[in-house]
Amino acid sequence: MPEQRSIKVLNARDIPITAVTVYTDRAEVTRNFKVNLAPGLNEIQLENIAQYVQQDSVKVDVHGNATIHEVKFERKFINSEIETLPKVKELKEELKKLEGEVQKERDLQSVYTARIETLNNLVGQGFSEEKGHHPVLSFDDTFVSSLNKFFEFHEEKSVDTKAKARISEENIASLTAEINRVKNEINQQHYSRESKQ
Asked: Which residues are in the DUF4140 domain (predicted)?
């Protein structure tokens, strides 16, 4: 006759944390719980452990007359049923839209950076020799007028482009905060759905 197997499922979120030790690169979280074991083989499943866990760091100890045969860590992804909930679908669409807007702002920033570099390069090239004539040697009213127009153009375009780049940076910061809010709301939907099950 096969040995009777008892399965107990526990939710890690329901087990109080008894100790936390924080290191520079990780944290050690201790949760203690008691389980009454039936005679024979017992399987204890602990669900909803933290998202980021080093698999080899999970340790199990027992006290009393019991033997641990195996400790196994598995990642099982959330039921796809949660992904099809209208609220989660709506949030994921919003997240995709926000991420697209962030990419658009980053593309704009690279354009602004290229413009500023080009303007600065023009300033450097403005004093290079052209057609064998050094600009200082042909320093007349026409040259001064052209030089003033050039510097006014450079100033106007540089200031305008840098202002646009700053606005773009602010937009990215705002969109990133909104992305984090939406991700947290999606996680909250997952959590509230799991806790109802």
From this structure: 20-119
